[in-house]
Amino acid sequence: MAPGGRGQCPLVGDRDEVLQLPEGELRTDPGHGARLIPVLLKFVSRNSGFTEALASLRLFMKEVLAMSKVTFHHDGGLAEVVEAEPGISLMRAAVHNGVRGIIGECGGQAMCATCHVYVREPHLDALPGMSEDEDEMLDCTVAPRDDRRSRLGCQIALGGDLDEIEVDVPAGQV
User: Fold this and answer.
1) What single DSSP character describes residue 18?
2) Which cofactor does it need (predicted)?
3) What is the SS3 assignment for 21?
4) Could you give the CA distance from residue 144 to residue 139 in angstroms, rounded to a whole number?
5) Where do the domains of the chain lie, and which CATH numbers do they carry?
6) How distant, in Å, are the alpha carbons of 70, 135, 141, 158 from that of 82?
7) Which helix (H) or strand (E) holds 82?
8) Which of 142, 34, 79 is nearest to 152 (CA)?
9) 70 neighbors 167 (Cβ within 8 angstroms)
10) pLDDT tens for residues 2-18?
11) Burial (CB count <10 Å: 0-12, 13-18, 19+), residue 7
């Protein structure tokens, strides 16, 4: 694969060298910090231009640190916490991390309501307005609709004002 091609996150050093890191490898695993150190040491040692390597490291860490945190609360007190890249939907973050109870059958097109969640109070004001399609689909959810807290996870983009959000997952989606 070409440097910087799809599915790759390049760290650019001097002499036009590029160290390729598989996309998602360091972003979705909560323990990515421990795996990051040997990769970065190898990268820095391969590049004689320490300043350039350090600049690349700063950019990479800025991206890693910008991750959004989503807490999915389930019946019985169980909670699943995932980190996701800004711009990804809450539904995709759940599906990519195997969160129980979020299906996303339509792939994020607001056509199935299998990503229905109840947004917790402190985060409601940070949500974007609801579209007509989302409003209609929320009338078709298996779990009862809460007029204030019910939202489709596929319509909630993480990042910006939503760098952290907590939701309750209904007991059933289908």
Assistant:
1) E
2) [2Fe-2S] cluster
3) strand
4) 9
5) 8-65 (no CATH), 68-168 (3.10.20.30)
6) 5, 26, 24, 12
7) strand 79-84
8) 142
9) yes
10) 444 444 444 444 333 34
11) exposed
